[in-house]
Please model this.
Amino acid sequence: MRLGHFIDRHGYVIDEVTAVYMPEGKSYTGLQQVEIYCHGGRQIVTKILNELLASGARAAEPGEFTKLAFLSGRIDLTRAEAVAEIIGANTTTSYQAAREHLLGTYSEHINMLRQKIIDIISEIEASIDFPEEDVDTLEEKRLIESVDEIIGSINQLAETYTGGRIIREGYTVAIAGRPNAGKSSLFNLLLRQERALVTPTPGTTRDYLSEWIDLGGFAVNLIDTAGLRGRGGPIEKAGQKSAMKIVSNADLLLWMVDLSEQDWEVTLQADIPFLKKYVNLLVGNKIDLLKDYRKVLGQAKDTDLTPISCLTGKGINTLKKKLLECINERMPDLTSGVVVTSARHQQKLKQSVKYLRAAKKKMSQSDSPEITAFELRQAAGAIDEITGKVYTEDILERIFSKFCIGK
Model:
């Protein structure tokens, strides 16, 4: 590192800076690199950048530095993708998963699965090269068991995407129910701000509102929907149609019930067949209007409601705990660092399992070892597309185009 002045093409000193030269293999990209550290004023940075561009440099494309790090072999594709994940992490959980990916725990596990497939290919190809060493029945059974074991391991890894998707994209909670049940009040209470308009008039919410909260380290997308009923004007009905679509796509349906209504239990029983279609959590609101809400809830048949008051805040902490329980039920073990957070990775893992099953079938039928080896190579190839041992420019374009320019 050197301290000195950055001088423009006309000999004018722009700033006092430090500059560091990084030889090949010692930089972020793995290539020769020079970094200049100047004072942070907008004018200074702009002037220095303009001088560099005028001297033949060009602005980096989104993700170009990380892409160069991948192409030079310094990191594999899973770790390159983890750079974008760690930059975009907005909760403790998403940061934890991204950090483990960046440190290489995930790619080590992926490579271990690939190596197991390669080991089986080696044994099969040895029998092709040395036909006098026939594979006996016991040996064939052992190879089939080995393939089965790999299929189980890959399936187990692919299943972590259920939680991995929530870590990366967030957990969606749709707040729904009959009109005037207190949906918008609960939405505001969980957000800790007056985000939704609240009035005693049914049908106030015509369109949905969506906001993110951090709940126990998880990103939760709360959506306040229009009240669901069979009547209302054209605008309200459009809001109800939108609400149904949101409910269908949500990870959890938080169904609000107005306990101050005389016939709330009859109405709820009528709604139960609809609610059973979705993962739901029932919430009984307005307990502040009841003399003895425990007695009222005790009369309900086969109904598990979480009692709350959006007016006083009573029961909200219990509701938050239940929400966290619903999320944690879908979460993989994060301490292992082996969690699939990418839809692309899950797709390739499933593809690998498909080829492994085809290879297993051919083994069982005593098919040609060349054909079995081909299926196994296809399985290994699918895994190679995860780590980037095999890639296309189209894949790289899709991955790195989502990066910020600084990386």
Summary: The domain at 2-59 is CATH 3.30.1360.120 (Gyrase A; domain 2).
